[in-house]
Amino acid sequence: MKVTELKKKTVLITGCSSGIGEATAFYLRDRGWTVIPTARKEHDLDVLRASSFDPIQLDLGDSESVQQTIQECLKRVPEGLGGIVNNAGMAMPGAVEDMGRDALRKQFEVNVFGQQELTNGLIPIFRKQGWGRIVNVSSIYGLITAPMVGAYCASKYALEALSDAQRIELTGTGIGLSLIEPGPIISAFRRNAAVAMEEDVISDNVRYADSYRKEAARRKKQFKKPDLVNRPPEDVAKRIAHALESMKPRRRYVITLPAHIGGFMGRFVPAALLDQLMARQLPK
C-alpha cells in the first residue's frame, strides 16, 4: 500500500461517547492531533465539550445528518484533513430468524451505509491533497461468524469487503486504508446492544424471547475489568494511532487474544468442527 506522509494532523472520529471512540479522541489529542469527535446524543456532545473538544452531532442512520457532518468537517479543515476514524457502530443481537426487515436495515444503516457515505464524502479532499488515512473499526466478527449475532456479523463482513475493495481502488492516491479488528473490549457496547435488542428484536412472537430478556438484563448489570481476554479501549487507540501515523500502515490490526484465536479458527478449523463449537453458545 503506497501512501505518503501526512501534512496535517487533523482527524474526524465517529462514535466518541464512550469506549474506543472516546479513548482514541483523548489518546490522539495527547499525541498532538487536532481531534473532531462526533456523537449522536446531546448529552454526550456536552460531555465532550466539557473536555474541551468541539464535537459534531452525527447520526449515521440519517443521511441528512451524514451530509451535514461532511460539510461541517470540510469547513473546519481548510488546511487539510489528516484522517477519518470510522468507529461508530451498533450491534443488533438475536437469532437470524428473529430479525425483521426493519431490524436488519437499522443494523446496516449504521454499520455500513452511513459509514460508507461519510467516507465517500470525505475522499475528494484526500484525493485533492494527495494524502490521508481512513481507519475502519471492524470486529473479529468480520472474520468469523457466531450464532445469535448474525446481523452484526453480516454488517462487519460487508464493511470488510467494502474496505478491501476501496483500499485497492485507492492505490497510488496517497490515501491509506486500514481495518481494525478488535475482540472483547471493555466499553458500553454490550449494554447498548442490550438496549437495541429490547427496542427492535424482543417481542412475544420471536423464537428466543425469554432468552433475550434474560440476556439483556444480564448485559445491563455486567461490569468487566481488564484481563487477558477483555482489554481496555486504549489498546485499540494505540493501533488506530499507528494506522494514522505510519508511512506504511497495516491493512489489518487484530487486537486481543480471542481475536487472534478466532481469526485462526475462521481460516483453518474445518467448518463442521467450527459449527459444533459455535453451537455451544446457543440458548438452551
Strand content: 5-15%
* Mean pLDDT across residues: 92
What is the terminal-to-terminal distance? 47 Å
What's the CATH H-level superfamily name?
A: NAD(P)-binding Rossmann-like Domain
Explain what you see.
By secondary structure, this protein is α/β, with parallel strands linked by helices. The model has no long low-confidence stretch (mean pLDDT 92). The chain has a seven-stranded parallel sheet with strand order 3-2-1-4-5-6-7, with helices on both faces. The chain has helices at residues 19-30, 42-50, 63-76, 101-129, 150-169, 189-200, 209-221, 233-245, 257-268, 271-279; strands at 10-13, 34-39, 56-57, 83-86, 132-137, 175-182, 252-255. The radius of gyration is 19 Å and the shape is globular. It has one domain (10-186, 227-275): 3-Layer(aba) Sandwich (Rossmann fold), CATH 3.40.50.
What distinguishing features does this structure have?
globular, 12% strand, Rossmann fold, 50% helix, 284 residues, alpha/beta, seven-stranded parallel sheet, 10 helices
